[in-house]
UniProtKB/TrEMBL annotation:
SMART domains: AAA (SM00382). This is ABC transporter ATP-binding protein. Residues 2-226 form the ABC transporter domain. InterPro entries: AAA+_ATPase, ABC_transporter-like_ATP-bd, ABC_transporter_ATP-binding, P-loop_NTPase. It comes from the Bacteria. GO terms for molecular function: ATP binding. PANTHER family: ABC TRANSPORTER ATP-BINDING PROTEIN, ABC TRANSPORTER ATP-BINDING PROTEIN NATA.
Amino acid sequence: MIELKNIYKAYKKVPVLKGVSLKMEKGGVYAVLGPNGSGKTTLMKCILGMVLPDRGEVFVGGESVIKKHSYRENIGYLPQIARFPDNLKVEELFKMISDLRGQKGNSEDLIQRFGLEKYLSYKLSSLSGGTRQKVNLVICFMFDAQYILLDEPTSGLDPVAMIALRKLIEEKKQEGKIIILTTHIMDVVEKMADEIIFLMEGKIYFQGDQEKLDELTGSEGVEASIAQLLLKEEKGKNDSSQKNGFRFKLNKVAL
Ligand code: ADP
């Protein structure tokens, strides 16, 4: 399980996460949504231990992220921007990652799934954005991690790779892994997510499955429902009594 307990984080005194509490269970796909700057990447980095919260605590598999670091071996992370040396060939990169880890990993199967065989001898600098994303996905999944964190995983992917990724995520879910992803593509959420976590201004505005979201907003589909949430929030800003009422309803449904 992954648990965040009342997390606060500010950068240069500007608050980004303002009291986020969450539980994520095995065998679940969690989609973290929210406008740009709402704190999605920061939340992921808190789970990774790359960002330490100012207050609150994060537990991964029962271990506190602040106190122990052994859980990190069990995390596969796809960052939005992966910084690997551009002059490396794809096959050299996979070898380097395996050597650093001291474990071969299962890159062959993933190379095949994402159709990367013909790119193995290419330098990273010569790859398209989508192909680079496939390389990063191989690295994220190659050590069969228990916890998989994907920041915008579909970015640049063609439809064939999207299907390969969806199948992979489905398999990991069946194996009882925890998968957390951020995305702006609502189709991805509808097809993959068991639970939606909607962040707004550093707080959890909604948490629940798609049915609950539709029920709350009176809309159908994630895109329409999220649009409704944003509209009501905007309207609520100009009308504090409605805002309180709507927030009350949201909290009731989310808990
Ligand atoms: P999201 O992933 O939802 O777009 P982020 O977590 O990346 O949001 O960022 C939330 C806010 O924190 C943004 O305003 C961003 O500019 C700011 N921020 C993120 N990382 C840093 C940092 N290292 N230093 C200062 N500000 C940061």
